[in-house]
């Protein structure tokens, strides 16, 4: 029994060696085989030309949070085949459906049956930016195929309606004067340019916009063509529909710019309130600051969270700094007023002491007469200032307020001019 098992093992080993020897191919023969393959590739026929045309029906609003938009379009693709393939298409259709009812007067035939279309060759079109396809709102989502008779064969036209969510890479650095460059790229899903070549038909793009909800943008459509390597390392022709969304800046002006200017202006009027009216002046400085913060939060809530600063951030931060400066000036005025009061109290005490000493040492007719106040009108500030001989009744806090009455609007006007020149030219953060 043991000898029989050993004999079976030996026979199996010899059989495996014999099969390996048969499957072995010398390296020289492999090189010849590769050369033959190269020669066969050089004899490949010209690729099939696929003409593409797109008709855009509707375009939904550009979603900033999801970075996408919904696009409803018709995709028309046509190519030419010889008479043999043309008759095969027709015979297959008639064998399954019977005599077609969709035969036009010129002899063209339309195929709408899904079971027939599944057995025919159709271009597998790959759309790069499409995130998901939605219901096309038609009875036949697979499209339909029309065969047109010609002298040297026939022309086949495949029509589909596509309703898809298209992703878009957005950049908000220049918001609110930003431009979003979105695209929809078509190419062959499987075949390279050596077999199937995508080209634009004439016309390449048609617009039949029945429903366009783009209140904040102006849209421009262009088409492009370029050739590059695909994911499988093969060259493909990429057909691109470029959708350029230019934002209308008027919405941001009404929503943020005008309210923020009014809020900053209300804070500016706090310089016309005396420091002695502390509670009223505090309301004119602190309340606009919190109103700007609320307004800023509302504007930022309309944009997706990003890690960079955009143009709207610079505007809101600039207005916050101007408003916060009024709070700082109010604090400085209060501090200067307190120091001035302390100085006046100390000077009054020293004057009282000196007067008592003089009254004891000098006769009554040597007493100084009280100083009289002379009213003068300062045209620059439009209010009455009293002077006592060479001394001004203005306190240091009043001088600081008067300075800010002139300096604050000049600085805010300069900030507006520089900001809007850079924003409108899109050079603020470029």
What is the overall silhouette?
rod-shaped
At the first level of CATH, the class of the domain at 48-170 and 197-215 is Mainly Beta
Strand content: 25-35%
Our Rg estimate from Cα atoms comes to 42 Å
Q: What name does the CATH topology of the domain at 48-170 and 197-215 carry?
A: Acetylcholine Binding Protein, Chain: A
What's the CATH architecture name of the domain at 48-170 and 197-215? Answer: Distorted Sandwich
Helix content: 40-55%
Kindly report the name of the CATH homologous superfamily of the domain at 48-170 and 197-215: Neurotransmitter-gated ion-channel ligand-binding domain
Instruction: Write down how many β-strands occur, each being a DSSP E stretch of 2 or more residues.
Output: 14
Taking the alpha carbons of the first and last residues, their distance comes to 89 Å
Biggest β-sheet description: 7 strands, mixed
Average pLDDT score: 77
* Total helical elements: 8
Query: Which residues form runs of ≥5 with pLDDT under 50?
Result: 17-43, 365-391
User: What's the helix-strand series?
Assistant: HHEEHEHEEEEEEEEHHHEEEH
Secondary structure category: alpha+beta
């Amino acid at each position: 029994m043991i000898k029989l098992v050993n004999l079976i093992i030996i026979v199996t080993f010899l059989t495996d060696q014999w099969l390996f020897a048969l499957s072995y191919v010398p390296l020289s023969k492999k090189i010849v085989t590769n050369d033959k393959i190269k020669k066969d590739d050089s004899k490949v026929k010209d690729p099939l030309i696929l003409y593409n045309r797109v008709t855009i029906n509707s375009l939904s609003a550009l979603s900033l949070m999801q970075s996408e938009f919904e696009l409803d379009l018709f995709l028309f693709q046509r190519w030419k085949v010889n008479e043999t393939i043309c008759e095969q298409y027709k015979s297959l259709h008639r064998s399954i459906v019977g005599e077609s009812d969709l035969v036009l007067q010129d002899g063209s035939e339309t195929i709408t049956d899904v079971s027939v279309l599944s057995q025919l060759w159709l271009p597998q079109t790959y759309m790069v930016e499409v995130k998901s396809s939605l219901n096309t709102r038609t009875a036949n989502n697979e499209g339909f195929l029309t065969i047109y008779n010609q002298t040297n064969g026939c022309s086949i036209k495949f029509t589909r309606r596509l309703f898809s969510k298209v992703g878009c890479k957005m950049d908000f650095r220049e918001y609110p004067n930003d431009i979003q460059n979105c695209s929809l790229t078509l190419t062959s899903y499987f075949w390279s340019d050596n077999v199937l070549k995508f080209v634009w038909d004439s016309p390449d793009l048609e617009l039949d916009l029945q429903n366009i909800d783009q209140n904040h943008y102006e849209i421009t459509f262009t088409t492009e063509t370029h050739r590059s390597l695909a994911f499988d390392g093969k060259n493909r022709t990429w057909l691109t529909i470029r959708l350029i969304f230019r934002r209308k800046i008027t919405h941001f002006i009404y929503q943020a710019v005008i309210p923020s200017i009014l809020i900053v202006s209300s804070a500016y009027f706090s310089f016309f309130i005396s420091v002695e009216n502390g509670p009223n002046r505090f309301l004119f400085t602190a309340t606009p600051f919190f109103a700007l913060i609320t307004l800023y939060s509302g504007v930022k809530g309309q944009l997706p969270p990003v890690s960079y600063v955009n143009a709207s951030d610079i505007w809101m931060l600039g207005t916050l700094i101007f408003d916060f400066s009024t709070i700082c000036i109010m604090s400085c005025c209060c501090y200067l007023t307190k120091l001035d009061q302390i100085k006046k109290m100390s000077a009054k005490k020293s004057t009282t002491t000196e007067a008592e000493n003089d009254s004891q040492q000098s006769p009554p007719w040597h007493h100084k007469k009280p100083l009289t106040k002379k009213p003068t009108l300062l045209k620059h500030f439009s209010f009455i200032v009293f002077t006592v001989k060479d001394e001004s009744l203005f306190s240091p806090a009043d001088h600081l307020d008067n300075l800010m009455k002139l300096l604050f609007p000049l600085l805010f006007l300069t900030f507006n001019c520089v900001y809007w020149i850079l924003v409108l030219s899109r050079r603020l953060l470029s």
